[in-house]
TrEMBL record:
Any matching Pfam family: HxlR
Domain of life per record: Bacteria
Record bears the keyword 4Fe-4S: no
Protein name per Swiss-Prot or TrEMBL: Winged helix-turn-helix transcriptional regulator
Domain HTH hxlR-type: 10-115
Alphabetical keyword list: DNA-binding, Transcription, Transcription regulation
Length: 125
């Protein structure tokens, strides 16, 4: 039987599955950087590439495909010559980024704890 976190919450296994899905999305090395770069609005590929200059072209392409697969990024193709492609955050992408900001707040409050614990363990005789 699944352990309940509280009377009104889903089983703990459901929480673990949800967290695993988030980790799959974040598995792309540059996902957070690309999401943040798209926050101000839609951008063409070259503009986005300039804004995330540390990311190589192929890695940016792979990251955009990854985020598009999870419906966090929308890719719109315009029938121009040459073809114009714009990328933007979907509603899901904007909400996902908001959730990441909450995680950032948690890290600011509790972030040093793991390193401090590791330091203490390392000093033990």
């Amino acid at each position: 039987m699944a352990k309940q976190d509280s009377a009104n919450m889903e089983p703990a296994e459901s929480h673990a599955q949800s967290i695993c899905e988030v980790l799959l999305i974040l598995g792309s090395k540059w996902a957070l950087l690309v999401l943040e770069a798209l926050l101000p609005g839609a951008q063409r590929f070259n503009q986005l590439q300039r804004n995330v200059a540390v990311v190589k072209t192929q890695s940016l392409t792979d990251t955009l495909r990854h985020l598009e697969k999870y419906d966090l990024v929308h890719r719109e193709v315009f029938p121009t010559i040459p073809v114009t492609v714009e990328y933007s955050l979907t509603e899901k992408g904007r909400e996902f980024y908001a959730a990441l900001q909450e995680m950032s707040t948690w890290v600011r409050k509790w972030g040093g704890t793991a390193q401090q614990s590791n330091d203490r363990v390392g000093r033990m005789p």
